[in-house]
Design brief:
This protein has about 400 residues and is α+β, with helices and mostly antiparallel strands. Helix content is about 15%, strand content about 25%.
Length: about 400
Amino acid sequence: MVMPCIGARVKGVPAKETFLVDQTPPASGFLLGNVASTDKGAVTLRFPCGHVEEDDDAITVCEVMDINEKLLFSVHRAGSDESVENLMKHGGYQDLNPLMNVVHRPPGLGPMLREASIVRDPKGVIIGMLATDRTEPQSDLLSELTFGQAKGLSMILEAQPASYSGYAARPRFAGQAAAMTVEGVPMYAWFTFFAPGGGRVDAGWLFPNGGRGFRNSMIYLHGPEGLEPQRAYDYRLEGPTPLSVNDTYDAASHFPWMFTVREARGDYKGPMPGTSPTLIQKITGPFKAILGDFVPRAPAGGTEAGVAYGDTIDTGKEGKPSTHWSWIKENFNRNCKCEKEACAICPNHQGDEGGRCSTAPPRLIHHEVTIAQGMDAGLVVMAAFCPGLLNAEYFSAEQIRSEAKYGH
């Protein structure tokens, strides 16, 4: 049994009943072909895995099902790669003490970039892929060079435009060349999910819940000349979802969030995907993004053309407890209570008190996404994984805030 997620709905979210507008199916067909086709009407899909732990190195299988719990396809979300070999490749260095077999992280290096996340049909055949467009990990140097609350400001300045791209096993247009081959299957570029605000949901202490510009992204489609200049859809994170029925995490970086997708109609004046911003744009761009200057606005008197509505549901099942634990009391693991007895979830508590597992583990929250008739459901679902993956390319908001407070 699934239930609507209590507390998930936030002020300003449009009503689903009047938001979705029927679309004309694309002449090129859908990204995943006939999988989850909307040719005959709107479809509703359910899937987990909105939240991404930046230090989770395991591949996570995220099954996408219809409302009858029939498996349609799955996204095999790639884990992080914080291996010694990868650190050395990106400037890591051996400890000067020859007796210590330790490789140190180079200054200013953010989380390692993930390999591609693979989309498979129920038989395990690859049908799509998601991959970051970064070539190097995000720089965290400003955060390391600043102290106190200035670290929060550095979070804003470091969040530069970023994107993830989606690929399919079928071309989007005639004559399209394959971008790469994975497991013997040609992959064709279909869309680029572009976050002009950098993809970091939490914008620091000045805007602890992200600022509306940081929540807005765009979807561009690939055409014969490359990225089509006019964005196709506006993707908006509407609000966070409680991860526990008894307590909520800080909204900042914890997914799944509610989201909406609209057909692009408003004017947009801001950085474009695939271009390098000037120095002044690097400085002013993040602030403009937070304040909403890059948010595409609908024409005066125009109506919104909603193509997908991302709600959330409480599955009634227990979710995976967070393994994050900080010795700073304000940032303790919400699945633990401070008592004398330690547990496996909270092994690194430092101080007079130990950690004990709470008797109330978090509930498992899934996305429930309704896609309008004629809209590409495969594209919407794959795009829904991009905010979490982009956000995981930064160190967590909890870690940045704790370091800012204590000057570490």
